[in-house]
Give the backbone structure.
Amino acid sequence: MRAKTLDGREIDLKQDALDGLKLRLKGPVLVPGDPGYEESRTVWNAMIDRRPAVVARCLGVADVIACVQFARANDLLLCIKSGGHNIAGLATADGALMLDMSLMRGVWVDPRRKVAHAQAGCLLGDVDRETQLHGLAAVLGFVSLTGITGLTLGGGFGYLTRRWGWTSDNVVGMDVVTADGRLVRASAEENADLFWGLRGGGGNFGVVTGIDYALYPVGPEIVGGVVAWPASEATRVLELYRTIAESAPPELTLVLLMRPAPPAPWLPKEMHGKPIVAVLACYSGSPEEGEKLVAPIKAFGKPVGDVLVRRPYAQLQSLLDGTQPKGRRYYWKSEYLPRIEPALCAKVIAHAARIPSPHSAVALFQLDGALNRLDEAHSPVGNRDAGYVLNLAGAWEQACDDAANIAWAREAWNDLKAFSTGGNYVNFLTEDEGPERFAAALGKGLQRLAEVKAKWDPQNVFRTNRNIAPV
Ligand SMILES: Cc1cc2nc3c(=O)[nH]c(=O)nc-3n(C[C@H](O)[C@H](O)[C@H](O)COP(=O)(O)OP(=O)(O)OC[C@H]3O[C@@H](n4cnc5c(N)ncnc54)[C@H](O)[C@@H]3O)c2cc1C
């Protein structure tokens, strides 16, 4: 079978070598044509179409170690897939040995210490489901089907970020298989340099097999959901969003969305496909206080839909899932913004009016709060001046519509990037974004990351990622 070496040469991977790998692994080893190979090799974004030579569906740390050792012994290119949600398709590579972590989805909660240990293949919803049993939550993202590991390794933000910082600020430790096939612990006490690098430097340093998250009391009942208006109300709704967000306590997080209305049951049928403006909200403190704070949003104008109510936190975490299915074509452009300026609002409305697909959106995610209070050097994520994330999120079905949808996102971005802090979110970078965009995403941390890389992966075994060259 044809496979690729670390430096990209094609080689013949012999059947006995492959049989040897199968004997060493507890999980299934798949090659093209095997049942399950297609599901494993594909990622969330259908724009990415790559074919690893071999997929190893790891069932535990021993399988991961066996794969790393096998790849090293045979000089094979390695790639690692946890949730497979990275828009640039960093989880998959042609000709590689893919470590598919998606069977490792165990979560163990210690409610006394307020820590959850999650295996690397977990999706966000797996962690929320177990932690919420104890009225606790980790700081994770907005879509329950996203992989925890890629999200955490790039920073991570969601409804709880304003209270407790980036997801990676709330990691207590990680278990990591290194380039030489050893299992090590990365925490403030053990291998602190590796721990620093992992909290923003992506998959450059090893295979993460498990993550320990600090947990906080949240819910189970919170006030959360969404209110939507026709896009003709956008100027007034954006002003409302801006005003409430500016004075919101850290427990309240607001997201603004402009898009064609999805065919959701809470929106009237006649609105489906028509342009709307919507505010998503989560108040993660007491529901009584939350109801008071979101009342002006619910009372504003004449909404076409309002499901901003008391509900379980875990339910809010999956509210957007249906709008982001695996298998569509996706292209994003993002920037961090220090604040929302009126001039930006007018441009957002104009670009939203030109969205060429029923699935695309302009999103403004509120950040600031806790993440701004930590030092820039605290972790490689940096961007401690970020107040909001702007995402121009193109999504469509057919390859023949690629050009129009990519052009929309790029044109809007060209016009809006003047409002940026200069930074962007590394986990939102698309395939065509090069080293300058990566450098802007990581701010001042790149040099130190290169030193950590040189120590932990001098041969650059872990290179199918936003790669940091060892120095
Ligand atoms: C629908 C959707 C919603 C999103 N919402 C949010 C959000 O609310 N907040 C947010 O912060 N981000 C969000 N993101 C972005 C998200 O953080 C990234 O897509 C992230 O890569 C997802 O992690 P994953 O495990 O699925 O990554 P994968 O695609 O599996 O992998 C991405 C990268 O991480 C590396 N990697 C994966 N697993 C490991 C491992 N076990 N060890 C070492 N390296 C590994 C891979 O090599 C690859 O380079 C969203 C993405 C999508 C598609």
In short: Residues 46 and 325 are 10 Å apart (CA to CA). The radius of gyration is 22 Å. The longest helix spans residues 402-416. The first strand starts at residue 2 and ends at 4.
